[in-house]
Amino acid sequence: MNIHEYQAKQLLAQYGVPVPPGEVCADANAAKEAAAKLFAQGETLVVIKSQIHAGGRGKGTFKSGFQGGVKLCKTADDVFEKAKAMLGNVLVTKQTGAEGRLVSKVLVAGAPHIKKELYCAVLLDRALSRPIVMVSTEGGMDIEQIAADHPEKIIKEAVDPAVGLLPFQGRKLAVALGLTGGLIAAGAKMFSALYKTWWECDASMIEINPLCIIAAPDGKESLLAVDAKMSLDDNALYRHANIQAMRDLAEEAPLETEASKYNLNYITLDGNIACLVNGAGLAMATMDIIQHFGGLPANFLDVGGGATKEQVTAAFRIILSDPHVKGILVNIFGGIMQCDIIATGIVAAVKETKLNLPLVVRLEGNNVQLGKQILRDSGLPIISGDSMADAAQKAVTAVGKR
Amino acid sequence: MSILVNSQTKVLVQGITGSFGARHTQLSLDYGTQIVAGVTPGKGGQTFDHGVHKVPVFDTVGAAAQQTGATVSVIFVPPPFAADAILEAVDAGLDLIVCITEGIPVNDMVKVKQAMLGKKTRLAGPNCPGVVTPGEGPDSKGGCRIGISPGYIHKKGHIGVVSRSGTLTYEAVWQLTCRGVGQSTCVGIGGDPVNGTSHLDIVKMFNDDPDTHGIIMIGEIGGSAEEEAAEWIQKNCRKPVAGFIAGATAPPGRRMGHAGAIVSGGKGTAAAKIESFKQAGIGIAATPSEMADTLLKMM
Fold first, then answer.
1. Which of A244, A262, A280 delimits the end of a domain?
2. Does residue A14 belong to any structural domain of this protein?
3. Is residue A165 scored above 50 in pLDDT?
4. What is the pTM of this model?
5. Would the N or C end of chain A have less CB density within 10 A of its end CB?
6. Sign of the Cα pseudo-torsion (B139, B151, B212, B210, in order)
7. Which residue among A157, A207, A262, A266 is the active-site one?
8. Domain map of chain B by residue range?
9. Residue of chain B with shortest Cα separation from A205
10. Burial class of residue B187, CB neighbours in 10 A (0-12, 13-18, 19+)
């Protein structure tokens, strides 16, 4: 699960990571008040940031024509104007796709003078099966590009989960970032707090980009997490009621939210051949084989190992809610599931949803003959596929090549 | 011969009284698996009855192993308690733990991995279909079925199968069986980002097993375990290996059902894995329908 920047900063602040002072606002008046408060506290510049899960906000464009989902302001009135332009409008960035995302909240925060931008992230290193804290001097940039072009500029420190990130490891990272003097201790403290947030919240990733060296008017330097991105391990959400409450359904595709109610693993894609499959690996492979034969999959859908008739019906309803779908491919390997039960579920779902698109069904496994018999006897125009390849080819032919 | 388990292997079931654990214990007993004990804390002294079988239930893994001689455990306990169940079985000194449970928090598995360092116990999974060494009876009965795989799709023989995905394993096994080709052992290593046993661990065992003559290795997007195995195969493997990688069409940044199946930061793509297979001389099935044929052509 992903959360908003302002939510990530709330969690980080609780663990002692320094973040800029600020408030999240849902209307322009509140934004103006929040800005006035910041100016009164001595901030000379305030930033207003659209809160959507996608990146690239600063360079995004609103559908209204307004440029930029992140703006610097010198007055509270300016914050009010910018908030009015952002709130209730749809922001399109390179990560949102053409449909964009509705901005319903903005973060109004202090924007102190940045002396240098750095990068920091905490994530799982799968090969080590350990968390790592990763830093780079190349802050504010696309880290994937840095990793590709200058891997030597990325420094990693693996953490033993039994003891956590040790102070010397934090200092190592700080020194590797070129920090000196008092900033070394400040950096070590910050990395320790970041790691603690990651571990205790069961995060899958925390990214601070940029992590900034800030210069106060008196010249005193400090560190600040100016932006924050955080995603959480779905498997661990059950033990974090506070984080569950941060889920923003508006950020999720409605069909995916609907599918999750039935414990169906569903992801919308761009194609027109819908798939309904049992098992995640087989579901991915079904998408792949559709593409192999010249079609485009409309979704990933894993109904799980023990799908019920209700789940199969819900799955059909969800698939058919996607207006791009022109045909359906059902691929079930009934290992433990009985093919006859699945066939009964398919027939019921087709009747209930009054399906009028081509439907190709490939059944294999337990009671497969009985299952195929049920499909034949239903009198429905169901196309039978003998293997995955046969079924995929029939589905592509029925829908027409791309 | 086979790897990990055979028809003589004595197995205990953690979570035997839950509905999922109970159903698959029954299927394993029907298959001929030596299920010798169950463990459910608080239900020690009861028996798990199925047909002629009366499986004693214990409160602890330690007692179950000591009194029955079980050397392998299969875990069906719910996600919040699964990490603890694994470590209890490690503490009891078992040889192999097969964890079926799906949905264990990643950090729990990070802790488990650290705690298992230096221990003799091997963990397969979590979030896996289990391990099957087919037997000689009808529908491959008389072998050792641990987990949730359908037993009847197997056939005793000489191909080793290793996969992160359950249903894709069944697909490969069924393709082999339909062509009259049997399997030595089929191992599901699970779809989670942190797991106990890697593709490479299993490939090494197959390479050393005189009864395994060829290997099907099925991977998917995410991580770099397939690349690691491919590199070793290129240098060391004496047996033909065919493979398939699922997820070539998966959008980056999305978790495709399995917690571990995600392309992040440009890493773990199907294209990179397929390229590493090519480099290593691993036969690549262009579609999942051709996994068995790709291997058989190489043999």
1. A244
2. no
3. yes
4. 0.93
5. C
6. negative
7. A207
8. 10-124, 155-298
9. B264
10. buried
Topology (CATH level 3) of domain B10-124:
Rossmann fold (3.40.50)
CATH number at residue A34: 3.30.1490.20
pLDDT tens figures, B54-95 = 999 999 999 999 999 999 999 999 999 999 999 999 999 999
Contact A389 B105 (CB under 8 A): no
Q: Residue A312 falls within a domain, yes or no? A: yes
Q: Which residue has the tokens 């320790």?
A: A192
**Backbone dihedral region for residue A349 (phi beyond 0: left; psi -120 to 50: alpha; all else: beta):** alpha
Q: ∠ at Cα B12 (B9, B15), nearest 5°?
A: 150
Q: Is the residue at A165 inside a domain?
A: yes
pLDDT at A402: 46
Confidence of residue A99 (pLDDT cuts 50, 70, 90): confident
Dump pLDDT digits (tens) for A178-227. 999 999 999 999 999 999 999 999 999 999 999 999 998 888 999 999 99
pLDDT tens figures, A207-219: 999 999 999 888 8
**Sequence letter at residue A350:** V
Tell me whether residue A256 is one of the annotated catalytic residues: no
Q: Number of CB pairs < 8 Å for A and B?
A: 179
A36 and A74 inside one domain: yes
- Taking an 8 Å cut-off on Cβ atoms, the answer to whether B174 and A127 are in contact is no
Q: Which residue of A has its CA nearest to B20?
A: A306
A150 in the same domain as A85: no
* Mutation for testing the B interface, residue in A196, A288, A342 having most B CBs under 10 Å: A288
Asked if residues B55 and B2 have their Cβ atoms less than 8 Å apart, the reply is: no
Same domain, A233 and A118: yes
Q: Which residue of A lies nearest to B151 if distances are taken between CA atoms? A: A335
Across the interface, which of A202, A269, A286 has its CB nearest the CB of B251? Answer: A269
Identify the pLDDT of residue A219. Answer: 86
- 3-state DSSP assignment of residue A127: coil
**Last-in-domain residue among A44, A76, A110:** A110
Cβ distance of A335 and B170 shorter than 8 Å: yes
| Number of structural domains found in chain A | 3
State the catalytic residues of B. Answer: 258
Q: Can you give the residue range of the structural domain that contains A313?
A: 253-399
Omega prior to B126 cis, within 30 of 0: yes
Residues A197 and A319 in one domain: no
Q: Are the Cβ atoms of A333 and B224 closer than 8 angstroms?
A: no
Decide if pLDDT at A137 tops 80. yes
Closest chain A residue to the Cα of B148, Cα to Cα: A336
* Rounded average pLDDT per 10-residue block, chain B, 299 residues: 94 95 95 97 96 97 98 97 98 97 96 96 96 96 95 96 94 96 97 95 98 97 93 97 94 83 80 94 95 97
The verdict on A257 and A330 lying in the same domain is yes
Cα distances from A377 to residues A128, A316, A334, A371, in angstroms, run 54, 20, 20, 10
Tens-digit pLDDT profile for residues B140-178: 999 999 999 999 999 999 999 999 999 999 999 999 999
Task: Tell me the shortest Cα–Cα distance from A280 to chain B, in angstroms.
Answer: 5
Q: Are residues A182 and A273 in the same domain?
A: no
3-state SS of A217-270 is: CCCCEEEEECCCEEEECHHHHHHCHHHHCCCCHHHCCHHHHHHHHCCCEEEECC
CATH number of B155-298: 3.40.50.261
Distance from CA of A162 to the nearest CA of B (A): 7
- Catalytic one of A5, A6, A43, A119: A119
- Are residues A280 and B221, on separate chains, in Cβ contact within 8 Å? no
Q: Are residues A82 and A148 in the same domain?
A: no
Inter-chain CB proximity B165 and A280 less than 8 Å: yes
How confident is the prediction for chain A on average, in pLDDT? 93
From chain B, the residues in CB contact with A333 under 8 A are 167, 170-171, 174
Domain B10-124 matches domain B155-298 at the CATH topology level: yes
pLDDT at position A253 over 90 = no
> Could you give the strand order of the β-sheet that contains B122-124, starting from the edge strand earlier in sequence?
B47-50, B53-58, B34-39, B10-14, B72-75, B96-99, B122-124
Contact B224 A127 (CB under 8 A): yes
Q: Say yes or no to pLDDT of A121 above 70.
A: yes
Q: What is the CATH number of the domain that holds A314?
A: 3.40.50.261
Give me the pLDDT at residue A336, please.
66
